[in-house]
Amino acid sequence: MTSTQVRVQRVYDTRRADGGARVLVDRVWPRGISKKDLHLDDWNSDVAPSSGLRKWYGHDPGKFAEFRRRYHAELREPNARQALERLLDQARDGVLVLLTATKDVEHSHAAVLADLLQR
């Protein structure tokens, strides 16, 4: 595989000029943004954590290690595995920008995905 560059960006941040495929990886559409204003290449909601896992985590950085472990387990499920494969294909094509509405991107599912995709 060629060198893969995966970035995580908030949907509310200014779009960077250096391009890349822009993929929303949240389960639900972000509030206050129209589809035309987001400039997406794809919306891959099947790769997002389950509602139950997301609610349990509650974006508590103290739970991040356990969240990562549980999320990795969810990503082994058939639908999530296919969605992850789709992201891997997109990452092989060059720069991939994972978009999320999460405020703390460092402790988000998108950060976990970026780490997996760059291995």
Description:
There is one protein chain. The chain is of the alpha/beta class and 119 residues long. It has one domain. The chain is built from five helices and four strands, in the order ββαβαααβα. Strands 1-4-2-3 form a four-stranded parallel β-sheet, with helices on one face. Strand 2, helix 1 (35-38) and strand 3 form a beta-alpha-beta unit. It is globular, with a radius of gyration of 14 Å.
Content-based structural category = alpha/beta
Number of domains: 1
Strand order of the largest sheet: 1-4-2-3
The percentage of residues in β strands lies in 5-15%
Number of helices: 5
Give the distance, in angstroms, between the N- and C-terminal Cα atoms: 10 Å
Major beta sheet summary:
4 strands, parallel
Total DSSP E strands: 4
User: If you compute it from the alpha carbons, what radius of gyration comes out, rounded to the nearest whole angstrom?
Assistant: 14 Å
Uncertain segments: none
* Strand/helix succession: EEHEHHHEH
**Dominant shape:** globular
Fraction of helical residues = 25-40%
Quote the average pLDDT: 92
Protein name: DUF488 family protein
InterPro entries: YeaO-like
Organism: Kutzneria albida DSM 43870
